[in-house]
Amino acid sequence: MVLTDCDGVLTDTGTYYSHEGELMKRFSIRDGMGAERLRNLVNVETGIITGENTGIVSSRAAKLQITEVHLGIKNKTEKLNEILTAKNLQNYEVAFIGDDTNDIEIMKVVGLSACPSDATKFAKEVADVIVENKGGYGAFRDFAELIIEAKSSK
Description:
Layout: E1 2-4, E2 16-17, E3 23-24, H1 29-42, E4 46-49, H2 55-63, E5 68-70, H3 76-87, E6 95-97, H4 104-109, E7 112-115, H5 121-126, E8 129-130, H6 139-152
Parallel strand pairs: 1-4, 1-6, 4-5, 6-7, 7-8
Antiparallel strand pairs: 2-3
């Protein structure tokens, strides 16, 4: 299973507002293809665990057919443990990509952790992998392709 944070990984951390005050976020189509390729090529489920709690994240997840979506989560490690129990998985069977201090604890306990190239220094210090692209510009796709390559070579 591959889990991701949202803001700073799937988005560029920017928050945009329309002239009517509607919140908008920018997502990369490449990241969406990464989730699809994980699912279709190597049968790996993806999920989102984020502190953000907006309908935008739910809408994006639905479009990408990501069914494991957890919004407004303050303790990501606690949520991970709930997922592990529900899916009968072990920590080492999960990969996570995050970008900031609120991702560090979960990054320390999963089997493989990553962060975008523009992540905070704190996330970079604990990540197993720092992917080439920035958050919102293909970072999740980079991580997905590493996992696809590793699973395909077995």
